[in-house]
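Lab meeting minutes (informal)
Scribe: AK
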Amino acid sequence: MPGTTALNHAMLQLDCDDKGINIDGKKLTNLRFAGDIVLISQDREELQQVVEELDDVSKAIGLTMNRSKTMVMRNEWADASPITLEGTTLPFTDSYVYLGRLISMDNNLRAVIMRRRRCVWAALGNIKEAAHLISDKKVRADLSDSTVLPALLRIRDLGGEQDVDANVGSRTKSSRADATEDQPRKAEKSQPPQRRHMLNVRHP
């Protein structure tokens, strides 16, 4: 993956030593996986500078930022002034899917959990016909564990989780974690009925 290696080298050329936010005594300036990049800045001016620098180093190695996927997230304390790139204002967004995970400034997990639950029921639907042909409960349980259970585990883990795509975010203070504890519990409540359905066991 020469493109990824070149991009990683380019990212190291950014002047970010005194930028980003402080996490346990270390500066966090970006998250990146292959060409998917999140830039993290303390304020609007810093973010504007890093976006321009990333655009420059990307062009130097023959890459371009994907304008259709490049968006800005900010919390309620951040400067609402626009971030521009070559005269174009980057759009603001309240949420963004990064590496399959929905990220939002209010940390509301409802949309994520609902999406995961739909995935679980979809996984169950994919094996529904085969499951009805199996009378052995152990075999049905094994089938559930290998297909449906992985989706359930992804739900339970919520309390933990090409061109250059830069999802950039600015913050001036720590964003408040407004997610309520009962949201992951709602996801876990999906497990018993789905498990009973798979094993063909009636609720007493």
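Next up, CB showed the second protein from the same session:
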Amino acid sequence: MAAGHIQAIQFPEWLSNVVLVPELGGKCRMCIDFRELNKACPKNFYPLPRIDQLVNSTSGCESLSMMDASQGYHQIMLALEDRKRVSFITSTGTFCYVAIPFGLKNADATYQRLVDKIFRPQIGRNIEVYVDDMLVKNKEVRDHIADLEEMFSILRKYQLKLNPGKCAFEVKGGCFLGLMVTQRGIEVNPLKIKVVLDMKAPTNVNEVQRLTGRISTLSRFISKAAKKSLHFFKLQKAKKFEWATSCEQAFKEHKKYLAGLSLLVKPIQGDTLYLHLSNCLSKLASAFEDCRTRHITIQHLPKPRAPLSIQAIPSIEDWRTPVI
């Protein structure tokens, strides 16, 4: 309340419960359970940028600056008529948010619409923005300070604040949207690999779902990711949970593969690339091959309903900024 994010309310229209979520370090973060309210809210279909395309755009940049907005959603005020709908109850009374709270259905889309509008002159040229994550990028170091000044002037104009603890300025590489980006190329965040390597064999369906979810975030770096995880997908649909020998073997193979993931690099301009398509019962796989280095990266797409030649079109579009 002292920060101006909430205020007391006497006649709320909706009431949600408070939930305490444990964080690293033993602390707890107060969240509001907006699930019922979210069900009643119409969906804001404003698109979010594709993470893979944003990350690809950083390849080959000599200087990078990563920034994170300070409590980003709380910097956007709610309309007066909507505040009574984002109310919550505590032991000391009922309160409502005056700024956009975390956990609200359309918070991401609303914030993305804002940053797309205010940073339109810079997006794609020297910055990339995904909701409250911002990155300034430059092929030449000498241009970096000027581009930072341009961005800061926009932040000041619209009174948006940054979290200094989550900012890194003029670095050669760092973590952006969960991936490690450098001038050399793109790497998996080691912490994401460690989480999978430290996992024990699942003992129930929920743990299998947790495993497949973590693997899916790394699938871009895994050749034949769907095939390697096939036993896990079948187990999620099985009537009875049984961690068979085949599942254990697939689990160990995944860990072994993840321990040696390679760096994804941008192809040299002018090199000849060949697109290979492979159609099977469950997936359409596409791969780009560099005829000089013979390196291959696999990308898995849903099984097409159109003829294979037509399905090649979205594959080419997806690889507009390919990395191999």
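CB comment: The chain has ten helices and 15 strands.
No objections, moving on.
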